[in-house]
Write a structure and sequence with these properties.
The protein has helices at about 5-15, 20-30, 35-50, 85, 90-105, 110-115, 125-135, 175-180, 185-195, 210-220, 225-245, 260-270; strands at about 60-65, 70-80, 120, 120-125, 140-150, 155-160, 165-175, 250, 255-260, 275-285. The protein is an alpha+beta fold. Among the domains are: about 5-50, Helicase, Ruva Protein, domain 3 (Orthogonal Bundle), CATH 1.10.8; about 55-150, Elongation factor Ts, dimerisation domain (Tetrahydropterin Synthase, Chain A, 2-Layer Sandwich), CATH 3.30.479; about 205-245, no CATH class. Strands 1-2-5 form a 3-stranded antiparallel beta sheet. The protein has a 3-stranded antiparallel beta sheet with strand order 6-7-10. A two-stranded antiparallel ribbon has the order 3-4. β6 (about 155-160) and β7 form a beta hairpin. α1 crosses α3 (about 35-50) and α2 crosses α3. The chain starts with 5 loop residues before the first helix and ends with a strand.
C-alpha cells in the first residue's frame, strides 16, 4: 500500500470535517483516491443511519429562519439522540445552515422535501449523513413548515429558551400598519401556543376523528344517566373541549379574563383596524 501523504489527509479532513484518523483510514482503503474516500466516509454515515433507524431522536434544536423583510418564515426541527451531540459544535454548525435550506426549499411543508433540497451543490440529507459519520448518532429533520405572507399582516414566531419548542403563526390584518402594531401581542400568542398546546385554531381545525373519540369517551362517562339527557351532557363536554383546545377560545396565558381571540381583537382595535389568526404551527423535540 502506498504511503498516504499528510497533506492528502489534511485535504480530506478539510473536505469532510472528519477526524484525522478516520480520513487516513478512508484514504488507505481507497488507495489515496480523495473522491472515493469521501464516498466511503459518506457510506459510513449512511450505514450508521440504517443501523440506528429505530433509535429515538429526542434531542436537538428548533431552527427558525426568515427572509430579509420578514414576509417568509420557516421553522424546522433538527433532531438527534443525545444532548451531548445536540450541543456539539458540529451539530450547531449544521443547525445554522438548515435555515438556508428552508428558504431554498420548493415546498412549504414536509421534512423529506427539506432534506432533498440542494444548496451549494449539496443536499441537506448529505450534510446530515456527513454529520452522522462523525457522531455515530441518528440525526434527522423531524418537522418543517414555511409560511409566506401574501397580504397585509405578519408572521410571528417564538422559540423557547431551551430550543426544543417553537411556534409560528400567521395573522391577517386590515392593513400593514395594524400588523406592526399587533406584533408584540402576536409574539406573546406564540408563547401562549408553546405553553398551552392548542389542538387546532378553531373547531373546524380539529380532526373530526379526535372529536368522535372525545364524544365516545364523554358518552361512556355518563352512560348510566337517563337516555334523554346523555346527548345534552355529551354536547356540553364537547363544547368545553373546544374552549380548552381551540386557540382562539383558550383563556390567554397572560390574562385569563380574555380569550386569545379577544386579546388580538383588542390590540387591533387600538391600532384602528382588525386582525385574525389565519394559521399556526407548534413543534416540539422530545
Amino acid at each position: 500500500m502506498a504511503e498516504i501523504a499528510a497533506s492528502t489527509v489534511m485535504k480530506l479532513r478539510s473536505m469532510s470535517g472528519q477526524g484525522m484518523m478516520d480520513c487516513k483510514k478512508a484514504l488507505e482503503e481507497t488507495n489515496g483516491d480523495l473522491e472515493k474516500a469521501m464516498e466511503l466516509l459518506r457510506k459510513k454515515g449512511m450505514a450508521t443511519m440504517a443501523k440506528r433507524a429505530e433509535r429515538d431522536t429526542k434531542e436537538g434544536k428548533v431552527v427558525c429562519a426568515l427572509d430579509a423583510n420578514g414576509k417568509i418564515v420557516a421553522m424546522a426541527t433538527l433532531c438527534c439522540e443525545t444532548d451531548f451531540v445536540a450541543n456539539s459544535e458540529d451539530f450547531k454548525a449544521l443547525a445554522a445552515i438548515v435555515g438556508d435550506y428552508a428558504m431554498g426549499c420548493k415546498s412549504d411543508t414536509g421534512a423529506q422535501d427539506l432534506m432533498d433540497t440542494l444548496v451549494g451543490g449539496k443536499k441537506l440529507a448529505e450534510r446530515i449523513t456527513d454529520l452522522v459519520s462523525k457522531t455515530g448518532e441518528k440525526t434527522q429533520i423531524c418537522d418543517y413548515e414555511r409560511y409566506a405572507l401574501k397580504g397585509a399582516g405578519l408572521i410571528a414566531y417564538y422559540v423557547h429558551f431551551n430550543n426544543k419548542v417553537g411556534t409560528m403563526l400567521e395573522i391577517e390584518t386590515s392593513n400593514d400598519a395594524v400588523g406592526e402594531s399587533v406584533r408584540t401581542i402576536a409574539t406573546e400568542i406564540g408563547m401562549h401556543i408553546a405553553a398551552m398546546k392548542p389542538v387546532g385554531l378553531n373547531p373546524e381545525g380539529i380532526d373530526p376523528a379526535v372529536i368522535a373519540k372525545e364524544r365516545e369517551i364523554a358518552a361512556e362517562q355518563v352512560k348510566n344517566k337517563p337516555a334523554n339527557i346523555i346527548e345534552k351532557i355529551v354536547d356540553g363536554k364537547i363544547k368545553k373541549f373546544y374552549e380548552d383546545n381551540c386557540l382562539i377560545s383558550q383563556p390567554f396565558v397572560k390574562d385569563n379574563t380574555r380569550t386569545v381571540e379577544q386579546v388580538l381583537n383588542d390590540a387591533a382595535k387600538k391600532a384602528g383596524g382588525t386582525a385574525k389568526i389565519k394559521r399556526f404551527v407548534r413543534v416540539e423535540i422530545g
